[in-house]
Amino acid sequence: MKKQGSEIEAVGINYKIHTHNNNKNNRSDQKNPFKILSQNQRQPLDHQKQAKVAVAVEEDDHDILVAGAGSEGGGRGGVGQVLKDVNLRARPWEILAIVGPSGAGKSSLLEILAGKITPQTGSMFVNQKPVDKAQFKKVSGYVTQKDTLFPLLTVEETLMFSAKLRLRVPPAQLSSRVKALIEELGLSQVARARVGDDRVRGISGGERRRVSIGVDVIHDPEVLILDEPTSGLDSTSALQIIDMLKSMAETRGRTVILSIHQPGFRIVKLFNSIVFLAKGSVLHHGTVDQLGLNLRLMGLELPLHVNLVEFAMDSIETIQKHHQQQHRQHLNTAEGEGEGEGETSPSGKLTLQQLFQESNKEQSSIKVNNLHHEEMGINNKPNQDSPDFANSRLQETIILTHRFSKNIFRTKELFACRTIQMLVSGLVLGSIFYDLKHDLTGAEERRTRAKFHRGKLRHRGRHGIVLSLLWLLHIKAWDSKLLDFHALHIAV
Ligand SMILES: Nc1ncnc2c1ncn2[C@@H]1O[C@H](COP(=O)(O)OP(=O)(O)OP(=O)(O)O)[C@@H](O)[C@H]1O
Question: Is the minimum distance from the CB of 70 to ligand 1 under 6 angstroms?
């Protein structure tokens, strides 16, 4: 049976980060990052107040963009506004691409959508219902910018462990699912090759990215969130990946949300809609054709056969100026309406973001009120069906241990070294207290021997320390060469 798909909607996301160096000119809102939310929410119909708050936010943002993190200026510390009043909607069967220059806030936005970080304000809905974080994690997959795979496992093993961890099906079905996925990812040729990494030679970078995607789509999630799935790849490999994601969206109705830095012409054509982010603000949310239209309306002349996303990036300053002008106009209108007790805004003048807000106003006012005391995305209602995972804690531990031991056994030198180390230290300690009786004389003898060895150790301390350090360095060299514990740490 076909899945219906999930429509994802994010409303009014504001995300600030607090840097360590405290800015001396602390503003009052820095002490209370929730101030804007509480003002807005306490008086949702007071346009005049809202407008004033919004003006304050804009002025504040200007300061922050000059001084804080997430800005081009950077450096003084304090509070940095990473995302400003971001709204977006991603539909099933489609790819939504978040584009923008470096530092625009793309990764932060994706992390918020994936429930990894919580913004100061904002709400998220799946199929018009407030998100239940635990449930959402089960129906979504999040692929990070960096591949965190075990370099010594093969492609097939990597996907099989992911399948075991995420699916509750008989082993025969597990392996057929993995085989089908390998086929879908175009990895049949390298199924038995080791994944590798920067140090251990393995499959190519593009293939590794596909394995990373595979790890997170093995449970066939309805929503797939990918941070820069094409970073570091040549244009052909990048196109292959986006093509694969497109067919995943189109054949199974998945909602694909991805960020991309500078998509090529052929890649742009595969996007159903884009969110153009700059300095944390949405400058455009819609199709690529609409972007072209908006650019023309701003008075920009588009060369023939131009890559519209690239062109928009190059014209970012003009677009930002236009956006700010529109924003101010809207605030002035809202202020005027507040005075005249007007209820509606002139829809012809609304930007796409404002349209979103308008269409969600009713829903949001109810939903946001329910949500604002909670972390974003946590349902207020008690969770009726507690998130049932594919495996129990014990089973998960066994699978993870199995995966870890596979990796360890493949690094024979490290494994042998550790075993010898444990045996030697066990024998040395055991020999000190060997042949002791469990009575009073045994206890006295234990004390005498301990005293003796302490004295001896103190005497030979320097040699001991030097030897131990050499030994540790030896082990550490192997550890860092193989990186397997680091990989486990990330993967677990
Ligand atoms: N935890 C943090 N600490 C310091 N700065 C942060 C933090 N999180 C985000 N930022 C800042 O917020 C801004 C947006 O970061 P983000 O990683 O979301 O941008 P991006 O658009 O994904 O950039 P890139 O394309 O280079 O990956 C950056 O200026 C970044 O330095």
Answer: yes
Residue 254 located in a structural domain: yes
CA distances from 450 to 256, 446, 464 (A): 65, 6, 17
Cα 413 to ligand 1 centroid, rounded to whole Å: 40
Substitution site in 83, 99, 107 for ligand 1 pocket (most atoms within 8 Å of beta carbon): 107
Domain that holds residue 465: 393-491
Same domain, 346 and 399: no
- Torsion angle (degrees, nearest 10) of CA 393, 396, 401, 402: 150
**Same structural domain, 239 and 341:** yes
Confidence of residue 131 (pLDDT cuts 50, 70, 90): confident
Give the residue, by CA position, lying nearest to ligand 1 atom 14. 105
Pairwise CA distance, residues 102 & 80, whole Å: 16
Spatial CA neighbour of 264 closest among 97, 113, 118: 97
> With a 6 A CB cut-off, is 82 part of the ligand 1 pocket?
yes
Task: State how many domains the chain has.
Answer: 2
Closest residue by Cα to atom 17, ligand 1, is 107
Q: Which one of 371, 403, 430 terminates a domain?
A: 371
Nearest to 195 by CA among 181, 207, 178: 207
Strand order across the beta sheet in which 121-126 lies = 79-90, 8-18, 121-126, 129-130
Please answer whether residues 269 and 246 qualify as being in contact, where contact means their C-beta atoms are separated by less than 8 angstroms. no
Q: How far is CA 259 from CA 113, 140, 263, 369, in A?
A: 12, 16, 10, 30
Residues 109 and 19 in one domain: yes
Q: Is the CB of 65 under 6 A from ligand 1?
A: no
The tens digit of pLDDT for each residue in 411-456 reads 777 777 778 888 888 888 777 777 777 788 888 888 887 777 776 6
- Answer yes or no: is the ipTM higher than 0.90: yes
Q: Which two tokens stand for residue 353?
A: 């973001």
Kindly state whether residue 69 falls inside one of the protein's structural domains.
yes
